[in-house]
Amino acid sequence: MAGSQAYPLNSLEQTEDLKAFERRLMEYVASLGPSTGRCRIILIVVSVCTATGAWGWLLDPRTSQSLWNHPFFTLSCIVLVGLFLAGIHKRVVAPSIIAQRCRTVLADYNMSCDDTGKLILKPRPANT
């Protein structure tokens, strides 16, 4: 039985293992918070700059001539595309992706978790 225990865990050991897993999951989700917050702020600022630049670009009668007449809009668009190519959209939603994947795995054990990583124990199914 390589990789598995030769004896069953007792209730106290199971409880401690669940608590340790919950602490680690909550710690990991919480560690993503500051990075996610910064990425959201950056994405919002660049999106507002792009929208503001687009508004000026659309109101300009020389719109069809060149984007170089509107360097603010052009630069904002380039930065926004660069951020998406760098994966900022994945960093913004990373905590919810982690929580969803954990819910998928925990469902096999009649458990779930919230968006902060806290475990939710579900009632055992009735034996028929």
Automatic annotation (TrEMBL):
Keywords: Cytoplasm, Lipid metabolism, Membrane, Nucleus, Transmembrane, Transmembrane helix. It is found in: Cytoplasm; Nucleus membrane. The keyword Cell membrane does not apply. The chain crosses the membrane at residues 41-58, 70-88. One of its GO terms (cellular component) is cytoplasm. The keyword Nucleus applies. It is a multi-pass membrane protein. GO terms for biological process: lipid metabolic process. Its main location: cytoplasm. Belongs to the CNEP1R1 family. This is Nuclear envelope phosphatase-regulatory subunit 1. The lineage of its organism: Eukaryota, Metazoa, Chordata, Cephalochordata, Leptocardii. The gene is LOC118417024.
